């Protein structure tokens, strides 16, 4: 999401497969090398492993028991609660995201690059950290309303970034024509230009809905019964593993349906961008009062989202008269967080490379199937992947249960789509002609790969790895299920304290997590906002 904001597709590609674009060089009918295809198939099989194992677990259960679990009142209540939450958060993100995107793309603001950074940085703030800040200020905050506020603040960038990029690329010729026919500037913009950004905004809204449906920490802290909380509770609080598996399966099906809906919306957005003309208007001036109002609105949202959590944490520490910090334990948790997230980023990049190169350079039904399977992690919540790998490791490889390799693998499966989207986009931007010239000069295929393709594509690939690292740092449910015995990350340490109501004691871990996650996120945003006003056609 943070790789680039100079084009609409770069704002979304790390979270979903880009729409097919045939590169200029190789023919779509050319067969890929067997080694590349074989490695890609292995990666796709690994990505599908958690879902396949969960399906096997449910199929092996007593059919009557499964049907009874599906038809019970609690399943219906969880479905209604989750649906209501998703609808409220999606609506809030769509409205706030379009407003923010309009200000970023169409209004002349002081220091425009700063506002792009502030609009994107909330993606580095875990939703449960925002929920923790709410509880630190109001310990009695519970239920749907505070949870919707938290998730809207956390998920709005999913809508803002692609919508702002789409508005930058929108054809303003019809808007000018509407002005000449008597419509005012606001009416012409809302009636003519804004609909051009709606496909991008809807695609981002579906991503926000997907995040909401799969989120665990914020609903658990604010005591709102959703599917993710129910799966975690069934796993930890009872010995009913079949009930946990069936609930997780329902959650996986719902998230995969949202993924399909997001891909349909993004396909419409891609077609709309392909037919967009090149007549574009520069940002407008609102005057001193209008500019002040716009800056105040953007600054307020950024302050609540980015400064609110640390301010609330510091306030809890001051109110408690200071907190005795176990520095050794805190440093150990920070070290574990960095090592596990760094290992996940490296593994995800290594897994993404063969599939990304295959998808960028070859076109066939086999390639499309392999790539789509590799993106399954996008539709699997952390609680589902964690539960699946618990079952798998206990049954197939019990000596690996609750070890670091299983947790790193879970991170890599969950966030492989982010690395894969970045890798495919980076390789697609390497001119095929440059590779062919290198081969005609006598270099081997491997030498061409290292001296031409890797040299030009590595910044995008590395950015995908950083994105995986940022996301893995704040992953909570899979970490709670799979972390090695005696090992804490900053996320689990924060969770352990907040689950007992010790908000002051949890503040140091929360601050450390916020600082660690914001450093690589700031690097990504800085790289992506160097040229926020540029656009690129497909």
Compact overview of the structure:
It is found in: Cell inner membrane; Cell membrane. With 538 residues, this protein is mostly helical. It is built from 22 helices and no strands.
Structure overview:
By secondary structure, the chain is mainly α. It is built from 22 helices and no strands. Helix 4 packs antiparallel against helix 9 (185-214), helix 6 (127-137) packs across helix 7 (144-169) and helix 11 (227-237) packs antiparallel against helix 12 (241-274). The protein is globular and about 65 Å long. Residues 1-29 and 529-538 have low confidence and may be disordered. Belongs to the binding-protein-dependent transport system permease family. It is a multi-pass membrane protein. Residues 79-262, 334-524 form the ABC transmembrane type-1 domain. It comes from Pseudonocardia nematodicida. Its main location: membrane.
Please give the structural blueprint.
Elements: H1 8-12, H2 34-60, H3 63-71, H4 73-106, H5 112-120, H6 127-137, H7 144-169, H8 173-180, H9 185-214, H10 217-221, H11 227-237, H12 241-274, H13 287-319, H14 327-361, H15 365-374, H16 382-395, H17 404-428, H18 432-440, H19 445-473, H20 477-482, H21 490-499, H22 503-528
